[in-house]
Design goal:
The complex is a heterodimer of chains A (438) and B (473). Chain A has 438 residues and is of the alpha/beta class. Chain A has helices at 13-17, 125-131, 178-183, 188-207, 223-233, 246-258, 276-282, 307-313, 333-344, 355-360, 364-369, 416-424, and strands at residues 27-34, 43-51, 54-60, 69-72, 77-80, 82-87, 135-140, 149-157, 165-175, 239-243, 264-268, 286-289, 318-321, 387-390, 401-406, 409-410. Chain A has 12 helices and 16 strands. In chain A, the strands form 2 sheets. In chain A, strands 1, 2, 3, 4, 5, 14, 15 and 16 form an 8-stranded mixed β-sheet that branches. In chain B, α6 (229-256) crosses α7 and α10 (348-354) crosses α11. The relative contact order of chain B is 0.18. Classes of the chains: A alpha/beta (438), B alpha/beta (473). Chain A: Keywords: Hydrolase, Signal.
């Protein structure tokens, strides 16, 4: 688990993921206040060149190939698209309307085997609403329903097409705190037994799949669930673990030493700053909640907005995510949250992030902790052509995306909210009811 | 998120207990002390009186700042002077007159933010069942409960609202499980050992009402009325009809003194107060069509809706709301967590403003209350992009004087006017920028937060001795 997560995904390479959308255009954006997304600050006079859906060059002194469509950014900010570090985008339409909510399944006998990739709905309204605000990729996780394992999450794009899934079965998601304890029967101690047992079962399956009989609903792990855990055991996909309490983080790190190949990623991690050296030593990355500063539960007593800044200072790779925080709909808040971390740096005693670090926390770092940093999240050559032109500083409140490219395809920025706004800018009805006004 | 959304949805329905100035604590005391027979026949309108006392402050002059006064004015290179807990002068060149002088070069000053919709104390952190006291979800009508009787003054959320949010006053509402969820209470955002020690002196009470999905779901799932929106209105109407009777009996008794006193009904006391105009109605209601029905119902029974809260679709009926003189308290951009929030747009507040209807921001959330200035910044930016030219000084009204009016406390706070409570925030930059934080917050002229002074960061009893105690949060 100590390896950088980039390694397990090296085999993917460009070849397996490089399906070029049919409508991808070659385009160059010039005269940009350019943000690469790698943690550095913006530079003026930058150019990005996208060809075949991928970034081929970005920086100053980059020449525009002859004949290529060119957009003059006129000094505006240009950056990689925002990556939602932890979300439920595309699997929920209206949270409280159950038939539209595929995030969790209370009644299912299966858990780890659950796979969100085939049910991501690219036409869910949050996709278009977040796309219009510059969110171009998302890590999408299921939610636990009846087990400590929620199932297999996906990485998606927010493009206006029916092919949303960038990487199916990109990770397994596990609850390892209060929620996990509840699913395991009522205590953290029971949770640990259940997790170890499940991993032993998966090992047994991996040794001899043919002899692993499905024992139905009474099984501690069904055949399908055991099968789904094998790539986790072997470190081929990361295990995202929601954990908040410092003591739980340490016991998880201990447990992971027994299953050495597993690549854990901590999610939430409110109290992580209090054990930052141990997390850094284990080489485990974190997808943290940025602004959680309330002792919302007894596992979050040490909550502070300085969590991410202190983790960064301790050398932990830390991306920004939004578990249990409007995660089905409001990935767009990531920009505001990142901006708040910059502001925090001005408060004595607090630990914030520099602008470049904060922006990396919502672009390249979520990609990196998923082992997909070579694919998206920055404008380094070879990355997917996910590029946004903004009318101002993208972390500032009220800045709008004026153009969004995903895989090099320029995206529509309309959605039903913009349509409702247009219809009701003048609320009064005219010669015909509002229903005739389009 | 689903569970969080449900909690938020249920939480989002508290209203305030409002008594008009004439029914406030002082007036009630006078009535009790009167020797007149009519006064003797009145029951106590204020049995849990505020014991809040302003903390000591120093005469303070802040200079060289950009001021948004909360009522729509902006003063560049401005100065504000307060002493003895009150605003003395706001302008440009003000004599120090023995006051401590703060050079606020590059900084901004505003009145403290007022959140008209909070459940702090009633749904405190940590959010465990043992502390969950926000919804008396045992009957669709619980006009008898008072949110103040649930407030836990040690909720760590009060400190976050103060230090990150610049919130100086907030209304705590009971939740929205019920059609009539009970009375609200308005608090100064100052830690005290008791709820009474936080209670805003003289603030009128409110009645929290709710329409829509919550009551019909909560009681429909129990197989009882209401299970539909028509059921919601039916139960409301039946209750208002009884309240009219109750009011009539008590009015007659108090005025004429004939016969023996009618039976007391604690819930009906509250509804009588609404019908008398002493208690303000804060009605959780999302959809435009339902708000229109509620406004008709209010006319039918002779009461007034002060504000619709969570009024996601107010923008569709801005003209109707304006004509009825009803305010809307809204979020900036929450949407889609439940069906009745499906049509939310970020320009809601701005369209109301443009059309001349009363509107304000609100949080309904222990996290959102820490960034209400940023929520308004979102609306302002969206409004200007949509061609509605609006200013920062105009927008600060949504955070200050408008909620103060909806709470009936605008004579005391909600703007930087001489004579008002010195509820003041010094921001370390433009408060509509994401990069800005409160630097100092005064309540009634007492400095209760200073980013540069670790001693001026409140730590509630709950957090004392816990991991992270006293940390910058």
């Amino acid at each position: 688990m100590k390896r950088l997560l980039l390694a397990p995904f090296a085999f993917l390479g460009a070849a397996s993921l490089a399906s070029v959308p049919a409508s991808a255009q070659d385009v160059a954006i010039t005269n940009a206040r350019l943000v690469v997304g790698d943690g550095s600050g913006p530079v003026d006079g930058g150019t990005v060149v996208i060809r075949g859906g991928r970034v081929v060059a970005a920086g100053t002194g980059v020449a525009v190939p002859t004949g290529m469509r060119t957009i003059d950014a006129a000094g505006k900010w240009v950056s990689p698209g925002i990556v939602a570090g932890f979300s439920r985008l595309g699997i929920v339409e209206v949270d409280a309307v159950n038939p539209t909510n595929d995030a969790f399944a209370n009644g299912s006998p299966f858990n780890a085997a659950i796979d969100v990739a085939p049910v991501v709905n690219p036409r869910a309204t949050p996709i278009a609403i977040n796309r219009a605000e510059g969110v171009t990729r998302a890590i999408v996780a299921p939610q636990v329903g009846s087990s400590i394992f929620a199932g297999q999450g996906a990485v998606i794009d927010l493009g206006d097409d029916m092919a949303a899934v960038t990487m199916p079965r990109a990770f397994q998601f596990l609850e390892f705190g209060e929620d996990g304890a509840r699913e395991a029967g009522g205590s953290r101690a029971a949770l640990i037994v259940q997790l170890r047992n499940a991993l032993f079962e998966a090992q047994a399956y991996a040794r001899d799949p043919a002899s692993f009989l499905d024992r139905g609903k009474q099984a501690l792990l069904t055949r399908a669930d055991a099968e789904a855990l094998v790539p986790v055991l072997e470190g081929r996909v990361p295990l995202l673990v929601h954990v908040e309490r410092a003591a739980d983080i340490l016991s998880l790190l201990d447990l992971m030493r027994e299953f050495d190949a597993i690549e854990p990623v901590l999610v939430g991690a409110t109290e992580a700053w209090t054990v930052a050296p141990q997390i850094a030593a284990a080489g485990v990355p974190v997808i943290a909640s940025a602004l959680a500063d309330l002792p919302a539960s007894f596992e979050q007593l040490a909550a502070t907005q300085s969590n991410m800044g202190r983790l960064k200072a301790a050398g932990v790779t830390t991306a920004l995510g939004m578990i249990n925080d409007e995660d089905a709909r409001q990935a767009r808040y990531a920009k505001q949250y990142a901006g708040n971390l910059v502001a925090l740096g001005r408060i004595p005693g607090a630990a914030g992030l520099s602008w470049g670090e904060a922006f990396a926390a919502i672009t390249s770092l979520p990609a990196q902790v998923m082992g997909m940093g070579a694919e998206f999240g920055s404008l380094a050559p070879g990355r997917r052509g996910d590029v946004v032109i903004w009318d101002g500083d993208p972390l500032e409140i009220g800045t709008a995306a004026t153009a969004v490219f995903i895989d090099g395809v320029e995206q529509p920025l309309e959605n039903r909210q913009t349509r409702l706004r247009q219809r009701y800018l003048d609320p009064k009805e005219g010669a015909l009811p509002k229903a005739y006004q389009r | 998120m689903l569970f969080a959304a449900f909690a938020a949805a249920l939480a989002g329905c508290a209203t305030s207990d409002v008594e008009p100035a004439s029914a406030s604590a002082g007036a009630t005391t006078d009535a009790r002390s009167s020797s007149s027979d009519a006064a003797d026949r009145r029951y106590d309108r204020n049995p849990y009186p505020s014991t809040y006392k302003p903390y000591p402050g120093r005469p303070t002059l802040i200079t060289n700042v950009t001021i948004l006064d909360g009522e729509g004015a902006r003063i560049d290179n401005g100065a504000v002077l307060f002493r003895d807990g009150r605003i003395v002068e706001v302008g440009q060149a003000i004599a120090a007159d023995g006051a401590d002088v703060i050079d606020g070069q590059g900084k901004w000053v505003t009145p403290g933010i007022i959140d008209v919709h909070s459940h702090l104390g009633d749904y405190p952190s940590p959010g465990v069942d043992a502390l969950s006291d926000g919804n008396e979800a045992t009957s669709p009508i619980t006009a008898d409960v008072w949110a103040e009787h649930s407030v836990w003054p040690q909720d760590p959320g009060f400190a976050r609202a103060l230090t990150n949010g610049g919130v100086t006053t907030l209304q705590i509402l009971p939740g929205s499980a019920n059609l009539m969820g009970g009375r609200s209470v308005t608090l100064k955002n100052v830690y005290a050992r008791t709820m009474q020690g936080m209670k805003f002196p003289g603030a009128p009470y409110g009645l929290k009402m709710a329409c829509g999905e919550n009551p019909k779901r909560v009681y429909g799932s129990k197989g009882r009325q209401p299970s539909t929106r028509m059921g919601n209105v039916a139960v409301d109407r039946a209750t208002w009809a009884k309240a009219q009777e109750y009011k009539s009996k008590w009015d007659k008794y108090e005025e004429d003194g004939e016969g023996s006193a009618p039976s007391r009904d604690i819930g009906m006391d509250t509804l009588r107060g609404v019908l008398a105009g002493d208690i303000l109605v804060h009605n959780h209601c999302y959809r435009a069509d339902e708000m229109a029905v509620v406004m008709d119902m209010a006319k039918e029974f002779g009461y007034k809706v002060t504000a619709f809260h969570h009024a996601v679709e107010s923008y569709k009926i801005a003209d109707l709301l304006k004509a009825n003189g009803v305010c809307s308290a809204v979020w900036a951009d929450w949407y889609g967590f439940k069906m009745e929030s499906y049509d939310a747009i970020t320009e809601n507040l701005a369209i109301l403003e443009k059309e001349g209807a009363c509107a304000m921001i609100h949080s309904d959330d222990a996290n959102g209350i820490q960034r209400l200035n940023q929520e308004v910044a979102k609306v302002l930016a969206a409004a200007n992009r949509a061609g509605m030219a609006m200013t920062k000084q105009q927008a600060w009204r949504w955070l200050a004087i408008n909620p103060a009016r909806a709470l009936g406390i605008e004579a005391q706070t909600g703007s930087l006017k001489p004579g008002k409570m010195a509820d003041v925030v010094l921001w370390n930059g433009d408060p509509f920028s994401v990069y800005t934080r409160p630097e100092r917050v005064w309540i009634d002229g007492a400095l209760l937060y200073d980013a540069n002074d670790p001693r001026l960061r409140p730590v509630s009893d709950f957090e004392l001795g816990q991991p992270g105690e006293g940390d910058v949060k």
